[in-house]
Amino acid sequence: MTLYGENHPPPDDRPTVQVKAVNWPVEEPVHPAPVAPQGERRRSSRFRILLATGVATAVLGSVGAVAVWAYAGDVPRGTTVLGTELGGRSTTDAARELRAQLDRRAAELAAPIQVQVGERTAEINPADVGLTVDVDATVAAAAATGAHAVDRLVGSREVEPVVSVDVPKLEAALEKLVGKQGRKMTMPSITFDGTKPKVRHPKPSLSVDPEHSAEVVKAGWLSGQPVTVPLVENHPATSAEEVDRMVAELAKPAVAAPVKLSTDRGSVDIPPQAIAKGLRFKADKTGKLTPTVDMKQLRTAMGDRLNKVEVAPKDATMTISGGKPKVADGRVGQQVDISGLGDDLLEVLSRTEDRTLDAKLKPVQPKLTAEKLGGLGIKEKVSSFTTNFTGGLSSARSQNIVTIAEKVDGTVVLPGETFSLNGHTGERGYAQGYRDAPVILGGKLVPGVGGGTSQFTTTLFNATYYAGLEDVEHKPHSYYFSRYPAVIESTIFWPNLDFKFRNNTDYGVLIDTSYTGSSITVSIWSTKIWDSVKTEYGPRRNITSSKTVYLEPGPSCIPANGSQGFTQDAFRVIKKDGKVVKREKFSWTYDAEPRFICAKEPS
């Protein structure tokens, strides 16, 4: 019985070829031969040809037989991996045998690897960094033929296994081992403090090289030997000398004088302060520093200087005339074309003379054209809300209400857009035409610029509320005022308290405002999508009584009658096709407003 073991592969169905040794003829010295008769010469030549042919045929046949024997399988005979003979096997059998060998060495290959980085040493578990032998790739390498066929036929070879490792995981493990020994790369930079260039020179990093470290660790894993991974310096692509050159040749000249921007409508100076805000020196991940100009930032830094040569576009507008929306066309503007100016400006900034840059003006369409505005579906009044005030239009409070109402009148909110009252009006101060009137501050009424704008905010909030538009942000007053609906009301204060709503419909929304000597009205025009929007109130609860507070008499003291505090819920009920499709809850707790008396407290 023949036994087959690790070094004796089982038989297959390929024919076995027996090969006899072949002795190559030894080349003899050449001596002049006696001249034979012509017939003998012909016979002698034919004999030598036949003999040579026979020998060559025998040799080639023998070589072929050896080749058949050597390559009787996918993997050439004599091929070993990790000391295991894989030669003469099919790739499937070779892979099976190699896996068996790896299983036998599993404990050895799972043993921690001792790794030293710099002055620190630690053990790394192979499984934690994905160290494995790629069996299929290794067998493929073993089956590959080499350039010297004869050496492959009669010799043996050891094929190194193909090892895989998870490079990011290995890098993380090594970086943890590096610890404080390493350092990150200091990227070069050039920034401006006002118009003074500030420089940061580059410094190299000190860390491990991921790819090189992977090869070292893979080799050490198979050999079972400790591994030393070197710390490598990686220098930024831009040197300290190059940084200094950029400062001398560009950064300093750039802000030494203005640049003249010339257009068909005249010229305007770009001041050094604006240049400093627009000129950027950006470093990529290799530390290469490149100068660029952020033209948008430069435009912003110039403020209103460009108004001298530019014409702002004007949106189309919509007003209500004769009970119907009417569209008025807008205006195309002209703006400096900043596209492509960056490279030209860089060239100009490095000069000390002839600092002029030619720029073209391009037409700028308004955001809202008459055609677009006309197609937004603004065709009917969807909701309207009115609140009343006293004192007539001559009072400061009434004037504030009218001022903010006129600022908002005619505003169009596109589908999906969010309207912010603070964002639309901006700061509401004396410069914007607002006056001092009572506002709630610190729990009491005091004179304050813009008093009364909260009444307009409440009116606008209710108009959008009953239009079914989405409430984004609002805050009711701390005290209840009977001139407003409970809970469904809102205050406003620049810049901390805002009112916002979102146009959550597929149609445009027009805000139309109007006023009389005693009232303010806000109407919402769009396309009606709801049958009705109503409010249902819950009962008032947690009722608290007001207290009497005596205040120092004087011009800043404003008396108040006081009011109860309470908590209440309000529900916005929206119906469509006769059914309730939305029911939204709004809740608020009002503090009890003290009864303020402008007098000294009785003893």
UniProtKB/TrEMBL annotation:
The keyword Metal-binding does not apply. This is Vanomycin resistance protein VanB. Residues 240-356 form the YoaR-like putative peptidoglycan binding domain. Pfam families: PG_binding_4, VanW. It comes from the Bacteria. Keywords: Membrane, Transmembrane, Transmembrane helix. The chain crosses the membrane at residues 49-72. It comes from Micromonospora radicis. Residues 187-211 are annotated as: Disordered.
